[in-house]
Design goal:
This is ATPase ASNA1 homolog. About 50% of the residues lie in helices and about 15% in strands. It is of the alpha/beta class. Strand 6, helix 10 and strand 7 form a beta-alpha-beta unit.
């Protein structure tokens, strides 16, 4: 029997009468926001009510619709039954959401001393607060009674950790219940001593009931997410190696979570056989880029080195191509791209090579702009210069959960292991920090190790401390960071302040309950004779405190630290770059270099050959996607690159028609 091919559109998803939850995700820069927004528009034409939710810290749906959204559902102009909201899934909001939920369920039993006690209990299991925030967010949205909810998610690594929250709860709830049985009464005593009152029943009993209620909520959400009739995930990719690789990882992880995935959108496909002629396509895309390139020059040329880099016919993978790209960002064979520059700052990153006091160099920006390529190329140039000047080796580190360094260098770099020497370079090393491994080297006890890999943001919080200790112990003359997309990178850069806050919280918690812990005696030690949780945590954290303080001081020193912003000449990237520059200024981190990547040169004499070469490269990966995901099991939707930006409702409707097979 021959399997029938599924149609190459998302029409079956839109026509489904049972779907309630639609997640849209993939690597940064592949068009997740455009796809999720367009899909929401299509669904709204079929459903009674649709809600589009952005959980990406970058929050681009406001830009896609050209309309400002907030944390509360707001009607999309021109569509009565489509609303949108932008939310932060963070630890900060978890207790507020939990208090509101508990207050409704338990009434007076949830006395004023209950929430501080619950907060302290939850903090004993790192990461559970973010998981609670996401679980309660989903429950809150479910209570709004929209027909369908579409999630515009953060890039792959962070999205997977959020969707893994049921796994975290499964491991964490029994641990919290154990802590409640041991410490719940004690926390209640603390509340009474402080003059607070509580309900008529013992606090640990109330806490136990609340945990059971929370567990029931999570089970209801999990049951829905694991029901293919109610929930599905749409993977968005572009026909390039890193995106295809990340899509395969995403599909496998979603399968392990038992979340349905059978729709794949291949975006930005160059198809010269139909549609807009090659010369016209080149001119249209070049004109769009020129508009934003002028904006970048107006914003930054007076104070920044603005480095303009052309799009290449080949992928930048392996030593030879990285070295070639490195020459371009160092100013070799510079192109004007039709602009005359009067800036006193050279359009290259050579200034970073010449400043040999630099120790920390961060490369960051929106997803999909070429951060990994730029950081690898910069690291190779640094390594060559430092070797010639008898300085120490250079280390490049990936803090992006996607970990693309191995792919860029075409060399296996073991996550969480020791620095790997890069082949073909005398003094260049690389590391990919694995969140789970990093967390287990810092966080005490098995109960924390069990949940570490599901902690959103653990890579920013814990791996940075591991990096700081490593750099201090080894003689690296410079460290280049290939960072996660903007929102998560800003968390990493804010690490010293965050660390101080964590220390204060742990210290206050230990001071409050240490006398009672001591009164309970040796029962607090585990079977291996290890000290209690708080003492163990303090011992580990105190070891890091001085290192992190030194790193924080260095990060604010422009002689030793700088940030390279990487962008492409498109609206969302320019907008996010400006946000990044402002945040860096607030954090007192030096930033004076901007790389504008993937530019089409309007003076290119052989436009057709360049487009043909890019199309041939893409076709290789389109074929690979079709081989990986048979049409008997997946809807593979190919979307051509367009001559205009997709912004505003009319163009989103047009893009949606391409997704769903309409015209």
């Amino acid at each position: 029997m021959v399997n029938e091919s599924l149609d190459s559109s998302l029409s079956s998803l839109v026509e489904s009468q049972t779907l309630q939850w639609v997640f849209v995700g993939g690597k940064g820069g592949v068009g997740k926001t455009t796809t999720s927004s367009s899909l929401a528009v299509s669904l709204a034409q079929k459903k009674e009510s649709v809600l589009l939710v952005s959980t990406d810290p970058a929050h681009n749906i406001s830009d896609a619709f050209d309309q400002k959204f907030s944390k509360d559902p707001t009607k999309v102009r021109g569509m009565e039954n489509l609303s949108a909201m932008e939310v932060e899934v963070s630890a900060d909001g978890s207790m507020r959401m939990l208090e509101a939920s508990v207050g409704q369920s338990f009434g007076e039993a949830a006395g004023p001393s209950l929430f501080p006690a619950l907060d302290e209990l939850i903090k004993m299991v790192p990461g559970i607060d973010e998981a609670i925030a996401f679980g309660l967010l989903v429950e809150t949205i479910r209570s709004m009674n929209y027909s369908t909810i579409v999630f515009d998610t953060a890039p792959t690594g962070h999205t997977l950790r959020l969707l893994g929250f049921p796994n975290l709860f499964e491991k964490a709830i029994p641990k919290i219940e154990e802590l409640n049985n041991r410490f719940g009464g004690m926390l209640g005593t603390l509340g009474s001593v402080s003059g607070m009152t509580q309900g008529s029943e013992p606090m640990n009993v109330t806490l136990g009931r609340m945990l059971k209620d929370l567990q029931d909520t999570v089970k209801q959400v999990t049951d829905q997410f694991q029901d293919p009739a109610k929930t599905t995930f749409v993977c968005v990719c572009i026909p390039e190696f890193l995106s295809v690789y990340e899509t395969e990882r995403l599909v496998q992880e979603l399968s392990s979570f038992k979340i349905d995935v059978k729709n794949i959108v291949i975006n930005q496909v160059i198809d010269l056989s139909k549609g807009i002629p090659a010369e016209a396509l080149f001119a249209a895309r070049s004109n769009i880029q020129m508009k934003y390139l002028k904006q970048i020059d107006e914003l930054y040329a007076e104070d920044f080195h603005v480095v303009k880099v052309p799009i290449l016919a080949e992928e930048i993978r392996g030593k030879d191509m990285i070295v070639e790209y490195s020459k371009m960002i160092m100013g070799e064979n510079q192109k004007s791209f039709g602009l005359s520059s009067t800036s006193e700052y050279a359009g290259s990153l050579a200034n970073l090579i010449e400043q040999r006091t630099l120790r920390w160099i961060f490369c960051g920006g929106k997803g999909g702009v070429g951060k990994t390529t730029t950081s690898c190329a910069l690291a190779t140039a640094l390594a060559e210069d430092r070797a010639q000047n008898n300085l120490g080796p250079v280390l490049i580190i990936s803090t992006d959960p996607a970990h693309n360094l191995s792919d860029a260098f075409k060399q296996r770099i073991s996550p969480g292991g020791d620095p790997t020497k890069i082949e073909g370079f005398e003094n260049l090393y690389a590391m990919e920090i694995e969140p789970q491994t990093a967390a287990e080297s810092v966080l005490p006890r098995e109960m924390l190790k069990d949940v570490a890999k599901f902690i959103p943001g653990v890579d920013e919080l814990v791996s940075f401390s591991q990096i700081a200790k490593l750099v201090k112990s080894m003689e690296f003359s410079a460290v280049v960071f290939d960072t996660a997309p903007t929102g998560h990178t800003l968390k990493l850069l804010n690490f010293p302040k965050l660390f101080e806050k964590v220390l204060e919280q742990l210290g206050a918690l230990k001071d409050r309950i240490d006398p009672l812990l001591q009164s309970l005696g040796p029962g607090l030690a585990d079977s291996a004779g290890n000290p209690d949780l708080f003492t163990a945590a303090n011992q580990n954290i105190d070891d890091l405190k001085q290192v992190v303080a030194e790193v924080g001081e260095q990060m604010r020193d422009s002689d030793r630290t700088t940030f390279v912003c990487v962008a492409i000449a498109e609206f969302l990237s320019v907008y996010e770059t400006e946000r990044l520059v402002q945040e860096l200024f607030t954090l007192e981190i030096d930033s004076r270099n901007i790389v504008v990547n993937q530019l089409l040169d309007p003076e290119e004499t052989d436009k057709l050959s360049l487009l043909k070469a890019r199309a041939a490269m893409q076709q290789k990966y389109v074929t690979q996607i079709e081989d990986l995901y048979p049409r008997s099991e997946f809807h593979i939707c190919k979307v051509p690159v367009r001559g205009e930006e997709i912004r505003g409702l009319d163009l989103l409707k047009s893009f949606a028609a391409g997704l769903t097979g309409g015209q």
